[in-house]
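Troubleshooting log. The previous structure file for this entry was overwritten by mistake, so regenerating from the original sequence record. Sequence copied from the archived sheet and checked twice against the printout by T.R.
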Amino acid sequence: MIQKVYGNNTEVIEIFKKTPVNVAKILADRISMKLREIKETKFSQARKKWHENAQENFHRSLDHRSFYFKQYEKKLTNYKSFSTEAADRYKDLNILGNVEVID
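Regenerated output below.
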């Protein structure tokens, strides 16, 4: 972990070996900063990827019910459904009897 933070800087490693008590707090702070930086970088890269995927798949999400819509429309627009609807309306008008229908 120390090499990730400071790279190949052997001077820091030597100081840490000589006086670990004095350097420990500074090193712990620096390591926590570096970890936070790494997490933020990973999160921002993931957020970019998620955003790209969402943009790419948005149009697909709108079409998830098209099969059922087409199937329902086919049922409603066939000859039998038109004729039964007309017959039902005619029966309703005959039941009403004296009521005038104004178009």
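The chain has a mean pLDDT of 81. Archived copy saved in two places this time.
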